[in-house]
Structure formats: C-alpha cells, structure tokens
Amino acid sequence: MKNNFSIPIFLSVISILFIAASYSTVYAQENMTDSDKPKFFSIQHSNSGKISKINETSYSLELNDVSDKTILFSDRPDRIVTSVSTSDFIGNWSTGVNSFTVDAPNAVLVIDELEEQDDVIIKLFNPIYDVDKKTLKYEVIQDNSTTIELPEKFGQSTLVIDDISVYAGIVNHSVRIT
Length: 178
Fold this sequence. Notes:
By secondary structure, this protein is α+β, with helices and mostly antiparallel strands. It has two domains: 32 residues; 137 residues. It is built from two helices and eleven strands. The chain has an eleven-stranded antiparallel sheet. A hairpin with a 4-residue loop joins strand 2 and strand 3. The chain is globular, with a radius of gyration of 24 Å. The chain starts with a helix and ends with a strand.
C-alpha cells in the first residue's frame, strides 16, 4: 500500500516541476527580442544647423547641407552596416506598427566645434526633408536628463537615432562585419 501512494506523489511532483518549467520558459521567451529582425541605429551628418524655440518644451532643429545618405548599423549578433537615401529614411518614418510616428525616437545630437564637443539628448518628431536644399528639419523635445543649453547655431554635427526595425528587410543589400 505504501508503494502505491508513493508513485502518485512522485508523478505529481514531476508534473508540477514540468508545469513550472513550462511557465518559466514561456515567460523568458516573451522577454526575448526577435533575433530574426535586426534593429538599426541611424546616423545623419550635416555641415551646420540651428535650433529655435517653438514653445516652452519644443524646439525646431534644422540641419543644413545634410548628407543624401543615412547610415544604418545594427548591433550584435548581426553587425550590419548599410545606408539608405535620406529621402527614403524620412519617407519610412510612419511605416510599420512600431513606427517613429507612433513612438518617437530618441537621438543624440553631437555638435562638433573646434574647441569642444557638445552632446544633446533629444526626441525627434515630424521630419521634413528638402532634397534640393539638403535641409532636414525635426521638431525636438530635449530629454529631461540633458542639462546642456541648446545652441542657436552650430557647425558640423552628427545625429544618432535609436533603433528602427523597418529596415530589417535590407539585410541582403548590406555589409556584414565579422
């Protein structure tokens, strides 16, 4: 009689452990990123720019003599480097479920002056690109953790924009770094 009681207990313990392992596996998978679709950081260069206040929280960022190519790169494990036309980059701003229109991207504006370098953390909204004038405009909000005063005019700059997955399909047209 004692042996008959031990087998059901043993099977119950195994079942509980199996169920617990299943739940923890599902939970871990929900927190994982989709490695099939790399996310890209974007880099835009300009020779000069200016920032003007729109209201108490918003500014207009104008980048002049902007490169006609936006550089894209992905992080590990993909390590992909490629570029798209700046027109296409701005044209795809609203593309996809998680578009930049739905979730405005964070960015770092790196202002390179001869004597010092300033980095400003901002959020980007409503881009307008004028191909003929090579001018790119964004509405921006300064990140609360950034204490630097925004300059009115500046020289050469680089804008680094956080991840965008809309370009995951360009993997076949890119260079992989190994």
